[in-house]
Design brief:
alpha/beta; four-stranded mixed β-sheet
Amino acid sequence: MVIKLTPQVQGRIGDAIAAAEVRTSGEIFCVLARQVSSYRDISLGWAAAAALLLPLGLIPLGFDPAWFPGLGDGWQAAHLSSTDVVVGQSLAAFALVQSVVFVIALLLTSIPGVRRLVTPRSIRRARVRRAAMEQFLAHGLHTTQDRTGVLIFAALSDHQVEIVADEGIHSKVDQAVWGDAVEALALRMKNGDPAGGFEAAIGLCSDVLAEHFPPRTTNPNELGDRLVLI
């Protein structure tokens, strides 16, 4: 499903952040990443494995260089000196098959949907989490006054959501409480409603922050109230 990120959608998310932060001294920051990794290494790995293993299945079928025009003429010379020629032709034909298999597998696993299927979930999760941590640090969520920054991070191509809370929150809040916010955002993103998803996640995070970190007498807005697209 195509996700449309119009100025109106981004404005709704910014308004939701501003409204949420009125209730708390915490800071909420939202990032939507179109792609956290090309996963080119995964595609190369699958292509290399396919090129090494799949052509082996031709050997029991009586693999013959003559299957390929120009690599064999079907005639066999009854002389020992012809052995090197036959071996060379066989190796060349096998290498050709491996090359074709490699290219086909690489192209197939470069298709976003296929690439997502063949990439282990643990690898996708780790790269989304790393990207979320990079954004957390890059936007200075770790420098808020009471270390109460919360990042809501969605990876569009990976269909995954991460919430990263700073150490000031870790000491008081069970990390399991973020589960509802993650599920709310993921569900609405799946249904093509990013604004509704972020609004729901922001509201749930705000409830948690308001309970443990009520507004201070002076409650400056330390981070911008907006959705960052990368």
